[in-house]
Amino acid sequence: MKTCLIVDDSRVVRKLARLMLEGLGFDCREVDDGPQAIDACRESMPDVVFMDWNMPLSTGIETMHKLRALPGGPAAKVIFCTVYNEMNYIREALDAGADEYIMKPFDADIVTSKLQIAGVL
């Protein structure tokens, strides 16, 4: 079974993403900030990380850089899921190493499509 770590400071967004991802056959874990995400990835690197951009303690970009430096980190697919919809944010995330970018609000069709593009489904 594929695994996914959902990193978002909104409990509602985490629960919504979890429902969609579990419906696609993923085993999901949730955390609400960057340092918790790094700890979770140290324990067990997921196949996919759904990452919010703007979180307390560490931005999604900072967290992704730390994740990529961990053993197995380069293999994890990172999909940013954020309210920022300007091209400069999308470009920054992709240039920094994100595999895909989803804008909030999102639905199951968008999540499925982005996971397919990232090569996870």
What descriptors fit this protein?
single chain; 121 residues; alpha/beta; Rossmann fold; five-stranded parallel beta sheet; 5 strands; 44% helix; globular
Rounded mean pLDDT score:
95
Based on CA atoms alone, the radius of gyration comes out at 13 Å
C-alpha geometry: globular
In the sheet with the most strands, the strands line up as 2-1-3-4-5
- State the share of residues found in helices, binned by percent: 40-55%
- Number of extended strands: 5
Low-confidence stretches: none
Structural class: alpha/beta
N to C succession of SSEs: EHEHEHEHEH
Number of helices: 5
Biggest beta-sheet profile? 5 strands, parallel
Number of domains in the coordinates?
A: 1
CATH superfamily: Response regulator
> What distance separates the N and C termini?
11 Å
Characterization of this structure:
This protein has 121 residues and is an alpha/beta fold. It has a single domain (3-117), classed as Rossmann fold (3-Layer(aba) Sandwich). Helices cover 44% and strands 20% of the residues. It contains five helices and five strands, in the order E-H-E-H-E-H-E-H-E-H. It has helices spanning 11-23, 34-43, 60-69, 87-96, 108-117, and strands spanning 3-7, 27-31, 48-51, 77-82, 100-103. It has a five-stranded parallel β-sheet with strand order 2-1-3-4-5, sandwiched between helices. Strand 3, helix 3 (60-69) and strand 4 (77-82) form a beta-alpha-beta unit. The relative contact order is 0.18.
